[in-house]
Amino acid sequence: MKRVRWGIIGSASIAQRSVIPGIQQSETGEVVAIASRTLEKAQDVAKELSIPQAYGSYKALLNDPNIDSVYIPLPNHLHKEWAIHAAEAGKHVLCEKPIALNAQEAREIAVACEKADVVFSEGFMYRLHPRYALIREVIHSGEIGELRGIHATFTYNQAEDQENVRHKKAWGGGSLYDVGVYPISVARMILEEEPLAATVQALFSEVHDDVDMMASGLLEFKRGVALTFDCGMWAAGRNTLELIGTEGRIEVPSAFVVQQNQQDNFFVMTEDGCREVDVPKVNHYAIQTDVIGRSILYGEPLTYPARDAVLGMKVLDACLTSSREHRRVEIV
């Protein structure tokens, strides 16, 4: 079976801890090279993760004809630059979320990938986990009645690490960029529509370069349905999802973070009681690799194409504007 040969642009912890092992466990992909800002760093990671080739620059990796596709886990402000460079080099692109700093940058990436005829995907691996297909089955079955609201959270406490890239404003730092994108994306996915408006209240921290360290928001959808959410980098950790219907609700205790091969069940609660829904033990990073791989190898359509990433950035733009300007922002 032909396999997609992956190069990794950057040595971020998410790449080492999750995405590279996911590619290595996939059916369609193999990691053949990694690049870092220094050759020594790239060589260290390559040795640790059994990657054949190491490069001391991102451009050197893109010039390698033996690489078909790249994964970009760089800080947010570098996504646009290197996604476009990769497309121009003829490489397919998986870019870590969020795709860019704003919707305009996202459109430029999408256009560059379309022009180069390469596959592009944004790294929201959790959406491809089979538990979300099971959750949609419960909703569509009518077991919890008509969906009336969604509440999602994603918080953690990393405030003491003031030099972290997530605390650099010009680099796309802040909780909305880092973890707020998950509640936003899950509501769009579950409802299969785009929100009409956003209202967000945020805590901006002077000691963290004025990024939002905590944010609470409301996204308005059609038919009176809304997402309420909170996200933060200076709060106790949780990542939960609650779907409220007229006849019951669904609770997902760990909605976005799944440890490798860990089983994360969810719960359906109605007047008949509470039932636990068993979820398969899978690696959603490997699933993500194979969805992209089948698109590259066989032309299968992506579940979430580049257009979805652009629409998601439009929503994030509205949330960021609302949090800074203290007003409701319509999304058009």
Please report the total strand number as a whole number.
Answer: 15
In total, how many domains does the architecture comprise?
A: 2
At the first level of CATH, what is the class of the largest domain? Answer: Alpha Beta
- Write out the strand line-up for the largest beta sheet, numbering strands in chain order: 14-13-12-11-7-10-9-8-15
Helix/strand/pairing category: alpha/beta
Task: Provide an overview of this structure.
This protein has 2 domains: 120 residues, 3-Layer(aba) Sandwich (Rossmann fold); 177 residues, Dihydrodipicolinate Reductase, domain 2 (2-Layer Sandwich), CATH 3.30.360. The protein contains 9 helices and 15 strands. It has 332 residues and is α/β, with parallel strands linked by helices. Helix 4 links the parallel strand 4 and strand 5. Helix 1 packs across helix 8 and helix 5 runs antiparallel to helix 9. The chain has a 9-stranded mixed β-sheet with strand order 14-13-12-11-7-10-9-8-15.
Summarize it:
The protein is of the alpha/beta class. It is built from 9 helices and 15 strands. The strands form 2 sheets. It has a 9-stranded mixed sheet with strand order 14-13-12-11-7-10-9-8-15. A 6-stranded parallel sheet has the order 3-2-1-4-5-6, sandwiched between helices.
